[in-house]
Amino acid sequence: NAGVMQNPRHLVRRRGQEARLRCSPMKGHSHVYWYRQLPEEGLKFMVYLQKENIIDESGMPKERFSAEFPKEGPSILRIQQVVRGDSAAYFCASSPPRGQGANNSPLHFGNGTRLTVT
Amino acid sequence: DAKTTQPPSMDCAEGRAANLPCNHSTISGNEYVYWYRQIHSQGPQYIIHGLKNNETNEMASLIITEDRKSSTLILPHATLRDTAVYYCIVRPTQGGSEKLVFGKGTKLTVNP
Fold it and tell me: How many Å lie between the alpha carbon of A43 and the closest alpha carbon of chain B?
């Protein structure tokens, strides 16, 4: 049973370019969460999505960032016009729907995409 | 969501038990206690979670006090590979946000 798959593992972009980060959840999981970790800092929640719906985007920057989780295919975190401050590790996690897993199912994380903006 | 308090760092000798404390004095009756760890540059790894009763799995044991205001994660025989940042998080069982809110955690260093 494959875990949460994120790609690419490393991504380098010049200032002003777009970055697209992909996340394939675990099989049977329909909930996806994105987190950002700046160098030497903690994990910060960005957005929580279910298939075709954004449930909680309270941690998303107001501009340049967007996320989607289409009916088919992986979840995408998109960063437009990247700046150096966007350099960070971006982690995706997935979980089954509440009520379908026993005892409050945990989130399972991928190994992240490390974005470097030059 | 209830907040948690953990010591910023701890040391443990290889082969000994590592006991990581967590205070969550404002926890609500419908909130679980979760433990994750993050080994350098990797994604957070789920360890264990519990509501009221003590829990044990192949990785660790979780001891929750009767009043649920604190808990302890126990790694029974720590190895060098257990060196990581350990996060204690509370999460509602239903309703509210389903996300996990990470604090600063405890940096555990296992020494040879």
Answer: 6
